[in-house]
Amino acid sequence: MITANVIGNKALQASLLRVRRKAKAGIKSAMAVSADKVVAQMESFAPERSGDLVGSIGWVWGSDTPKGSFSLGTLSGKNENELITIFAGNKDAFYARFQEFGTIGMSANPFFFISWRLQKRGVRARMSRAVKKAVK
What we know:
- The protein is an alpha+beta fold.
- It contains four helices and three strands; from the N terminus they run ααβββαα.
- It has one domain.
- A hairpin with a 6-residue loop joins β2 and β3.
């Protein structure tokens, strides 16, 4: 294995640290924009009778979601403040998963994972642009 050390080049080290800070800030911003877009897509696809289901769709930094919700998964970095959880459902809209996956007596009316699949390419592109912008 080959290793290399840059000795005495404080300007390069400072520049690399700035790139890292800018990339982290850009990625965090891109994550929030992406989460907003995914949530908006989910809300547009969700069936709306009482409004409880649409009102229960959201995202949070971290993993603390409302009781009764299910989550899409997480967009994450190395620690809790770089983690986004997208969710649907709460104590009033506990039936969110029934809408998404269906039951024996009710066919599925997907709104959750289909929105993620439609937005996934845009999410990745926003992350890539944030990193490229930081490097420039």
